[in-house]
Amino acid sequence: MSxxxxxxxxxxxxxxxxxxxxRARNDVDRWDGSTYRRVLVLDNAPVEVAVTQDGGAxxxxxxxxxxxxxxxxxxxxxxRAALDxxxxxxxxxDPFYTLAAGDPALAALAGRFRGLRPPRFASxxxxxxxxxxxxxxxxxxxxxxxxxxxxxxxxxxxxxxxRMYAFPQPAKLAVAEPGSIRALxxxxxxxxxxxxxxxxxxxxxxxxxxxxxxxxxxxxxxLTQIAGIGRWSAEYTLLRGVGRLYVFPGDxxxxxxxxxxxxxxxxxxxxxxxxxxxxxxxxxxxxxYFHLLLDRLAARGDVE
Length: 304
Description:
Elements: E1 2-5, H1 13-21, E2 30-31, E3 36-42, E4 45-54, E5 61-68, H2 76-87, H3 94-101, H4 104-112, H5 124-134, H6 139-153, E6 156-157, E7 164-165, H7 170-174, H8 178-182, H9 188-203, H10 216-224, H11 231-242, H12 253-263, H13 271-278, H14 285-300
Antiparallel strand pairs: 1-5, 2-3, 3-4, 4-5, 6-7
Helix pairs in contact: 3-4, 5-6, 5-9, 5-11, 10-11, 12-14
């Protein structure tokens, strides 16, 4: 099955996917230099999706195909909706470029990565579990844990050849033993938190997708009431799970370093310092966060 999508210009699939996947070792969101691949779970069946781009940043055309061992005939609306959410296909970021034009350094950064869209995880649940995995770890170490979790509990697809794994569904993790998750390399505290969130999401006690209709304070209060979820995880979820583009997670150590490095600061930034530094970029501080991530990935040689 296939469809064609025409995102609002400018749009670059490569940059947006890199901002989503964060590191080359990400095995859930795959990028081979031309094709984005991911397994979605639709109607309880794995659907392997592949996306390529033609037309360049200013006239983007996305070619989407999907395969499933189940019935994928009626999957088009869900595939379309998932990609629109994850890749922000219809988001108008022209106001961001207007804002950036008034700041020479930001204008250069925005110009270098023109076409980047702020990505979102496929679900708030996936975002929260990623945040838990990354707590007090490097990105590489945290994503290794996410890969192991997906390989163990995620739906598998080999419809297009090699085996790929979806991110685990809440119902699957809700019945997992914390000790089994711990055996993958998670701390017992993280394992307990993941199972507790999955149980609450499955039983209806925690309606994560409804967080999008609440204000920031309510979202943070709801999430931080969960044992193992602090301010960083809550703000990370506001940006990457709910899509609040004005949020720059001030407790994100990597983002702090990226920001201080880009600003040429000799001293590290604390939470208050981060918020003061990004104040002039609102309501697009979160979009700057993604640009700085790409800037760092470019320095590593991952992004051109």
